[in-house]
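RECORD CONTENTS
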Amino acid sequence: MEFLKNFLKRILGIVFSGMTMAEIFDLLMPTRQSAFVQRRRSLLILSRVRLVAATFAVLTPLWIPVDLYIFEAALGMYLAALRVLASIAFVLLCLSYRGADSVSVARWGLVWLLAIPTVFFLISHPLLAQFAITDPAQQVIAAGYAFLPFVMVAGLSVFPITFFEGVTLSTPLLLAYLLTGVLGYQLLPFASHLGAQWLLLLLATVATLSGMSQLHFMSQLVDQSSHDGLTRAYNRRVGEEMVIQQFMGAQRANTPLSLAFVDLDNFKSINDQYGHEEGDNALRSASTALRRVLRRGDILIRWGGEEFLALMPNTDAEGARAAVARLREAGLGMRPDGKALTASVGIAERMLDNCEQWTDLVEKADQRMYMAKQTGKDRVIGIGDQLIAHGEALV
């Protein structure tokens, strides 16, 4: 028990050491991670679900000869049939969810992975309690069935999960173990059963914290590999993947998806006259200003050089126009010569522009941005070739 307490303190130190409050909150609820982290996390969870399911599909029936040898024939046959059914369920789970990458699918994969052994435990435990188990060898094997929830709760530690998910997933196992004791089906004395219940709770806590630590570590790695080091916007490689995913999701749900193509005006002159350091400062300033006006669910991508894409899911053309208007009102920062840093912006929307491919959406926004450049810069062109400059509509 003391070992578990010390281990718990160490895990707490690892999980929360050097973290901001925002990062801590990101580990509590499953909806706070970015779409890209969510997708990577889902892929990792599903791959591990299939791996664990495949492992149990092989190991579960291998124990049948032991049960048949140790227990009397009737009990051995019941347990053998139960193991065969569990193995089939694990095989089906192993073959499921291929190609899926959504958080909800990954969560259901975890639910089924834990549901199979939970049902196995709830059936096998009362079954064992109905037979007289007096032989020491039988008692040893029966104890293995009693500790099945401990194995499954400990298994949560290999998945990158949030605190809420850890509590939700471990609670059925805790209740199942408690239920067998309350109903008198426990294989251990009731006092020992309650002590084991407390141990199971501690183990669930440690496993959840370990999963949170994995999630934090994975988020940090994904963040470093997916973001541009200078502007903290998503880089082009990851940005394309996110545009594709958002476009496909909008098509399936038949929802709007807007995109603003932002190109800083006269950026080359900053590098030429004041050096690349001042150019970097301008890029950082523009990126900060863009993130400030975008919503939490919006996505900012550094498309290349001084070009940015602002991807706005579930946003129609008017909503995108309003976001760009807020940006123009707040400003992008200052140039080294004291003048305002400006940009030319093109706006496109999937449904109104009848975009069949994600490349169509980017191309239309790019064309309108180029039109804004050609017609004087520091302006916005939206759908219908409407030109907006300094808050006034031009044609």
The chain has two domains: 2-226, 236-394. Residues 236-394 form a domain with the Alpha-Beta Plaits fold (CATH 3.30.70.270). The longest helix spans residues 190-226. The chain has 15 helices and seven strands.
